[in-house]
Design a protein that fits this description.
The chain is an alpha/beta fold and 377 residues long. Helices cover 37% and strands 14% of the residues. It has 12 helices and 14 strands. The strands form 5 sheets. It has a 4-stranded mixed β-sheet, sandwiched between helices. It has a 3-stranded parallel β-sheet with strand order 3-2-4, covered by helices on one side. A 3-stranded antiparallel β-sheet has the order 12-13-14. α2 runs parallel beside α8, α5 runs parallel beside α6 and α10 packs across α12. The protein is globular.
Length: 377
């Protein structure tokens, strides 16, 4: 994904595989129908996805970023307001807050989970805070019980960023249904991916769902009647049909991800200089398998693995508060997240990975990390 070279173990493949036939059939069905925006495929997917997540309602939108921004707007959050969120995520989490007109305020992450630390959230809340926005990072749920206690103490809604956490649960509860609403992305790399951009909001609040459904379509109550300023963020029929075709496979593919993660954990348990991520909740869905490389050796290990034909990626190399795009927000420093950004390395993990591939990746990590630890290179 990052270079033009052919890896023996690529990070992932985005071409349809076993689902090629059902995806092709879904596309052909939409093309034959002649209906491409906000039609029966979107309505059907919304109902099916809400049922899969365990939510009362789902609203299809253009992207996961839009889903977050529309939830905030639907809650009346905008200019002059603040939203407390994590410094360790794709920057789109904070950019969505800015799209709504509010200011992201960063609370550092828990050093074990790498999701936002509830105690740091409590410290970051001020008179302008209007919501708490945790990210279920890499598929691992944030500590929602602790965050709920903080939110209740300050009478604040929780908006969940579930863009990496399809079917994840926190304490047995489906993510996206614990706070007031949850945002999902169906970007092609996600556990449930479209063949382009797509997203959805899930919520048990029917009034909030109705407002977001209106906001995504220019604020229209009906054709050419705009009740409030909205945006153009509509899940299209082609992507909805593709997602409907792939949704039944999400459960089995999630189980395969968990099996691969378990295999990695066993094989890397005592690898030199490698910290295997803690599974803090069995509801983890392993969008990514991210190890931490000690002793400033992450980049060296990544290069060594690439020389063996193993592609890895870094999620994420720069904490959000240190992104130039956030400089105007006067963000606070978050040292735990900053350290993690220098150590994290994502290993290949996707349902198409064979046990042989996993064994080879783990053996290469063990060998190369041991070599680096000895100082042989």
């Amino acid at each position: 994904m990052t270079t033009g070279r052919a890896f023996r173990v690529p990070f992932m493949s985005l071409a349809p595989g076993e689902d090629h036939a059902v995806v092709r059939a879904a596309i052909e069905r939409v093309v034959a129908s002649g209906w491409f925006v906000l039609g029966p495929e979107v309505e059907a997917f919304e109902a099916e996805f809400a049922r899969a997540i365990g939510a009362a309602d789902a609203v299809g939108v253009g992207t996961g970023t839009d889903a977050l921004a529309l939830i905030l707007r639907g809650l009346g959050i905008g200019p002059g307001d603040e939203v407390v969120t994590t410094p360790l995520s794709a920057a789109y989490t904070a950019l969505a807050v800015m799209m709504a007109g509010a200011r992201p305020v960063f609370a550092d992450v828990d050093p074990i989970r790498l999701t936002v630390d509830a105690d740091r959230v409590d410290e970051a809340i001020g008179p302008r805070t209007r919501a708490i926005l945790p990210v279920h990072l890499y598929g691992q749920p944030a500590d929602m019980s602790a965050l709920e206690r903080v939110a209740a103490r300050h009478n604040l809604p929780i908006v969940e960023d579930c863009c990496q956490a399809h079917l994840a649960t926190a304490g047995g509860r489906p993510v996206g249904t614990i706070g007031i609403a949850g945002a999902f992305s169906f970007y092609p790399t996600k556990n449930l991916g479209a063949l382009g951009d797509a997203g959805a909001v899930v919520t048990n609040d029917r009034a909030l769902a109705a407002r977001i459904r209106r906001l995504r379509n220019g604020g229209q109550t009906d054709r050419y009647h705009h009740q409030e300023p909205g945006v153009n963020s509509r899940l299209d029929e082609l992507q909805a049909a593709i997602l409907r075709a792939r949704l039944p496979r999400l459960g089995p593919s999630t189980q395969r991800r968990r099996m691969i993660a378990s295999q990695y954990r066993r094989l890397l348990a005592d690898a030199d200089g490698i910290d295997v991520p803690a599974e803090c909740d069995p509801g983890h869905v392993y969008h990514l398998f991210v190890v931490r490389v000690r002793n400033a050796a992450r980049d060296q290990l990544q290069a060594s693995l690439a020389s063996r034909g193993i592609e890895t990626l870094i999620h994420y190399p720069v904490p959000i508060p240190r992104q130039p795009a956030l400089a105007g927000m006067e963000p606070r420093d978050c040292p735990v997240a900053a350290r993690a950004c220098h150590e994290v390395l994502s290993l290949p993990l996707h349902p198409g990975l064979s046990d042989t591939d996993v064994n080879m990746v783990a053996a290469s990590v063990r060998s190369e990390s041991a070599t680096i630890a000895r100082g042989d290179r």
